[in-house]
Each structure stands twice: as C-alpha cells, then as structure tokens.
C-alpha cells in the first residue's frame, strides 16, 4: 500500500513537536544565580515567537547587592544591539533603551539583598514608556513613537549586548539572582502588573518569554538552583 506524503511527514512533525516541548522547562521556584562579575556568564532565552513588536512588557525579579550599574534584560536584533534594554544604573535610577532612544527613571526602589520586582513597558502607538518597581509606578515618559522591533531576536540575561549576541563588558554584567522573567507583546494593565508584583497566580503568563515554559541555555558561570529558603520572593 502506498504511503502518502502527508503520512510520511507526520512522524517527523510529531517528533519535532515533542522535542520542542522537551526543550522547555518550568522554572517555577527556581532562579538563575550569577555569582561573579564576568564578561562571559549569561543566559540565552529563546522566545516563543519572533514577530515584529509594537508594544512590550518585560517583568522580572532581581536580588543583588551591587551598587554599580548592571544589565537586567538585553534584547538585540542584528540591526540594533539595544532593541529593548532594561538597565539598572546607580542611585536608584533605571534606564529603558529602545533603538538607542533612552529614558531614565529616578527615585524608584533598588533594595539591596531583597527581591525587587520590576516591570518595564513601551507602546509604539503613543511612544510612552513606564517602569513599575515593587508595585510603585514611575513617571510616564516618551521614548520612541512609531516603528517596531523587527528582526531575529537575541535575548540575554546577565550581560548587555553591545553587538548582536555578544561584545560583553564585565563592568555592566549582572551579579546576583534573577527569577520570574516574562515578556509580552503588549502593554499590561495596572491590574495585571499588580498580580505579577504580588505573586498572585494568574493565567496571563508571558507570550514571548514564559518562565513556566522556558527554552534557555546557560553560558559560563551561571547556576540554576532552587530559591533559597528565607529568600522567598
């Protein structure tokens, strides 16, 4: 009996689908630990989609005692190494950099040796960017109005990309722990950000990056470990 082309392709597709699922891990209750300053240690995140973005929300929690500046989330494309960068500067100042357009947010919390919950948003339609740290909103500021984030993404934790996928500077590296990293292709509402900040279970996990179904690769001295007792987020 002849086997149709569809029947021959189906086992391959099923195997590929199973492999894709196997590559993703639920990191609930886990954290990435970056124990030392370096220009090599980083985590590569593979997004669930690679379409053009006209709005972004990135949420994460970090735990660090560093007083210097350090990168929290670096999204690059081949055209722009700073397609979307979330960067913690000194003296409780945070930076969002989108296509080398920069806005600074001052007077927000940056508590050493505690978990800090951070959500950053940008909407192309209005150009408005905003930051939420531990549930407290920043001033809404104009970043880049119009346009999109397009191209194959390179998403990295632990380092700032000065070129696509590399050119790291250890003086900008993250030292500490990161957890609960999510990314959406929309601007979350205040109520959705409040649910994230207060660790209330909800169904709207990140559709670009999802901590509960994460495809990642650790490079260099990075440890995946359970969140330590007494350091609960």
Describe this structure as you would to a colleague:
The protein is mainly beta. The chain has 2 helices and 15 strands. The strands form 2 sheets. Strands 1, 3, 8, 9, 10, 11, 13 and 15 form an 8-stranded antiparallel sheet that branches. A 7-stranded antiparallel sheet has the order 7-6-5-4-12-2-14, with no helix packed on it. Strand 6 and strand 7 form a beta hairpin. It is globular and about 45 Å long.
Task: Describe the structure concisely.
This protein is mainly β and 233 residues long.
Q: Strand percentage, roughly?
A: 25-35%
Helical content stands at 10-25%
Quick one: biggest sheet?
A: 8 strands, antiparallel
The gross shape turns out to be globular
* Rg, alpha carbons: 18 Å
Low-confidence stretches: 1-21
Cα distance spanning the termini? 60 Å
Structural class label: mainly beta
So how many helices? 2
Could you spell the SSE succession in H and E letters?
HEEEEEEEEEEEEEHEE
Return the average pLDDT rounded to an integer.
89
Number of strands: 15
């Amino acid at each position: 009996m002849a086997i149709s082309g569809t029947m021959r392709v189906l086992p391959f597709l099923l195997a590929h689908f199973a492999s894709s699922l196997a590559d993703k891990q639920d990191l609930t209750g886990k954290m990435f630990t970056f124990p030392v300053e370096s220009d090599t240690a980083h985590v590569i995140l593979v997004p669930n989609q690679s379409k053009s973005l006209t709005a972004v929300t990135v949420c994460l929690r970090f735990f660090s005692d560093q007083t210097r500046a350090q990168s929290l989330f670096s999204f690059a494309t081949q055209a722009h190494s700073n397609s979307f960068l979330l960067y913690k500067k000194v003296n409780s100042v945070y930076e969002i950099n989108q296509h080398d357009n920069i806005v600074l947010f001052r007077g927000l919390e940056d508590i050493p040796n505690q978990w800090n919950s951070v959500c950053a948003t940008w909407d192309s339609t209005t150009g408005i960017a905003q930051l939420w740290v531990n549930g407290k909103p920043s001033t809404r500021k104009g970043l880049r109005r119009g346009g999109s984030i397009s191209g194959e993404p390179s998403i990295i934790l632990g380092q700032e990309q000065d070129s696509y996928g590399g050119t790291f500077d250890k003086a900008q590296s993250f030292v500490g722990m990161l957890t609960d990293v999510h990314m959406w292709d929309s601007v979350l509402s205040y109520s959705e950000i409040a649910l994230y900040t207060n660790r209330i279970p909800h169904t709207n996990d990140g559709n670009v990056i999802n901590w509960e179904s994460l495809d990642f690769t650790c490079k260099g001295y990075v440890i995946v470990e359970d969140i330590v007792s007494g350091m609960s987020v």
